[in-house]
What we know:
The protein is of the alpha+beta class. It has a domain at about 60-180. Helix content is about 50%, strand content about 15%. The protein has seven helices and seven strands; from the N terminus they run αααβββββαβαβαα. It has helices spanning about 1-15, 20-35, 35-45, 120-135, 145-155, 165-210, 220-225; strands at about 65-70, 85-90, 95-100, 105-110, 115, 140, 165. Strands 2-3-4-5-1-6-7 form a seven-stranded mixed β-sheet. A hairpin with a 3-residue loop joins strand 4 and strand 5 (about 115).
Amino acid sequence: MRKQIxxxxxxxxxxxxxxxxxxxxxxxQDQAQLGNVRALRELRRMQTTQPTPRTGDDGESTGIAFxxxxxxxxxxxxxxxxxxxxxxxxxxxNGNVDYKRDGVALMIDEGRTVRMWVHDRDAIxxxxxxxxxxxxxxxTLTGPEDxxxxxxxxxxxxxxxxxxxxEVVSGxxxxxxxxxxxxxDGRRALERERDDTARRQDxxxxxxxxxxxxxxxxxxxxxxxxxxxxxxxxxxxPEIDR
Length: 242
């Protein structure tokens, strides 16, 4: 017990010997990890820009990233902690936020850019949504052409309110949106045609149904008119002239 108390006392003394700036940075990092975006902003303000190492398995760097279409002013608030069902995050000491999907490195928010480590369809949509919240509706893409084209298609298919400052990528986005709109219009036209056909069939069949007394559409008055009067069982009396 004494040894444990001594170890805890020594650890506390060591922590207290750290500069107040470092203690404050630790506090901000802990708060940012809990989702406090004001703490994240202050943590980033304290840091100098550092190259971002990859947090994936192979240590390779990548040039695939989302960014603002214009220079982001230092006064603009774009600190966000993105959340999702299978998304976890870790706030680094310099204010960068690592994201993992099912435990695998997915992307990193560096403040002015969102850098992607993987770029399958779901990953692109997640990165797009984070970038849209951070940078607004017009984005810059950095990366190979196949990534840019895939991103434009994903944005269109996800019906996201975004555009791109690259005219070629923007053209792909709008062309895909037009295709999707045309397909939706075609489906709606087929549905209207099907409904119109069903209504015409109902109108054509209605006279036949209502002409039969026992048919569901026959009126009660028609059934009464078609039913014979009941026989009283007595012979008809001759009519007497008066």
